[in-house]
Amino acid sequence: MSLFLGPIHQWLYDKIIFQEDLTDALIDAGKAEGWSELTEELANECHSYDRRPLEEAVDPDNIHGSLQARIADAESRYAKLVQTIASANPARVEDLKQAARRFGELNAVPAGTKPDVAFGYLNNTLLDGMPCDNVNEMISQTDDSITWRRNMDIHAQHWANEEDELYYVLRSEIVKGMFEPAGLTYEEPQEGTYEIRA
Fold it and tell me: Cβ(37)–Cβ(92) under 8 Å?
């Protein structure tokens, strides 16, 4: 990354804010539905209070480090929220999945979106570390489908005991919510490999 704020920093910061919006959407769902596991203390600890513009939110002398810290903070609070609720009441996972799906639907791609554009949309919204991490690698692309591989699990470090299976369960619900209204299907044909089809 560069020494000066540029489009790539705004792009990454927007993805961080999207992650914060997801966390807040789960908190809002829990409050609205009266989840007893979502205590006021947990909601306050996991909610994002810093929505300043990029130029105010990062240290201009350490842009890369500032953004890395924001990613770690956003992902860790999300993980804490999900794991605390799910461990207190495993049946609540279904409610978390429904809330994640609704969040995806609120951020759905337009009808008629092609798979390559949908893949770009995922890349522009879902947080997958820093650009230099190269988490996702395209395997194949046709007019009607796109397939990619996750090269590393960048999220496990933020989850207790690196148990982030629930992260991917909820992520799948979000993506399905984004794509199914547009007539696209999203699948994981094998672990770590994903496909979008028209």
Answer: yes
